[in-house]
Amino acid sequence: QVQLVESGGGLVQPGGSLRLSCAASGSIFSIYTMGWYRQAPGKQRELVATITSGGSTNYADSVKDRFTISRDNAKNTVYLQMNSLKPEDTAVYYCNADVLSIIELTRINNYWGQGTQVTVSS
After folding, report:
1. In the sheet where 67-72 sits, what is the strand order?
2. Residue-wise pLDDT tens digits, 47-71
3. What is the SS3 assignment for 110?
4. In terms of CB atoms within 10 Å, which end of the chain has fewer, N or C?
5. By C-alpha distance, which of 105, 104, 82 is closest to 6?
6. Nearest of 31, 26, 52, 43 to residue 90 by alpha carbon
7. Other CB atoms closer than 10 Å to residue 83's CB: what's the count?
8. H/E element, 24
9. How is residue 121 annotated by DSSP?
10. Is pLDDT larger for residue 106 or for residue 44?
11. Contacts of 13 (CB under 8 A, 6+ apart)
């Protein structure tokens, strides 16, 4: 009923930049908080950044001042601009969203994208 599709991952050298995008589609009535999480090999999934529908943001300490989250509510899309990338940023990055679906207007459900690989290596 609701799909999140990420794009923009890839291989980049240390110090480089990447921009991730995540587009939500389907039976969407309203989208609330959207965010990015990541999971490195052998580690648990962790929060990277979130943004509310009103634009309030929250970042993990490890990415503050390097990553910027933004969204385009008209396009149901969230972005993650990643600068000054480090090898430790290597992970699968997942999009997440709290969505009120047209099909189920009585509660907000949480959705995940399929993930996009980001590799930072020389």
Report:
1. 2-7, 18-26, 77-82, 67-72
2. 999 999 999 999 999 999 999 999 9
3. strand
4. C
5. 82
6. 43
7. 14
8. strand 18-26
9. -
10. 44
11. 120, 121, 122
